[in-house]
Amino acid sequence: MRDAAVERVSVVFSLFDANDSGKLDGEDFELMARRVVVAADGSGEPALREMVEAFRAYWATLVAELDVDGDGEVTFEEFRTCVLSPERFDATVARFADALAELGDPDGDGLIERSRFLALMKAIGFEEGKVHALFDAFGPSEDDLVAVDTWRRGIVDFYAPDKADIPGDLLVGGGVG
Ligand SMILES: [Ca+2]
Ligand SMILES: [Ca+2]
């Protein structure tokens, strides 16, 4: 596995630990869901509800698959084993990516504006400079729009523990931002 993928696992862990407790717990995912819902300007109630449910399903999968000692929390040591069989998380990550992409495109034209991209990605916990770098890497149009489907694939790759050399690598490391 490439260094970027290893580093990404630790970045994802930090992002998920929204309450900074040093471990993943159910509250982290409630916090992230609330932040994203607040940032999701213009989205309807069903899309918002699905986002909250996708966050809860994500946590339910993580705790079911990775909480080896059964204490109801996932430590980094437990979390890093997600790379051993990443396919266990495919369905959960896909649902999460679908829900997030839906919030990125409330008017359904298949495109996302930089401002909306920034708001949602910052709500998830990414740094602003890195979010801009990622948006640029997706090759925005003259009107500064990116295809939501490109972003959706980027989300899937980012949260899949085994991918290397992906645009989302711009979100880790110290090179940008
Ligand atoms: Ca936590
Ligand atoms: Ca545990």
Automatic annotation (TrEMBL):
What SMART domains does this protein map onto? EFh
- Look up the domain of life of the source: Bacteria
User: One Pfam family from the UniProt entry?
Assistant: EF-hand_7
Q: Which residues form the EF-hand domain?
A: 4-39, 54-89
Give the GO molecular function terms: calcium ion binding
Question: What name does UniProt use for this protein?
Answer: EF-hand domain-containing protein
